[in-house]
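Hi everyone, sorry if this is the wrong subforum. Our group has a chain we'd like a structural model of before ordering constructs, and none of us has done structure prediction before. Sequence below.
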Amino acid sequence: MDKYECVPCGYVYDPKEGDPEGNIEPGTAFEDLPEDWVCPICGVGKDEFEKIV
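Answer:
Right subforum, don't worry. Here is the predicted structure as tokens:
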């Protein structure tokens, strides 16, 4: 599964870790995050993230 980085703040969403504060279980792919999920650091939406290659 791919990692995604928040462009404004640099937070990296790692599907292996999920987002415990946002009640996102480990193993949840970025594509499977709810549409209203936001960056836990700066609060921007999924559209502000880029896949890390």
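For your construct planning: Strands lie at 4-6, 12-13, 49-51. DSSP finds no helices and three strands in the chain.
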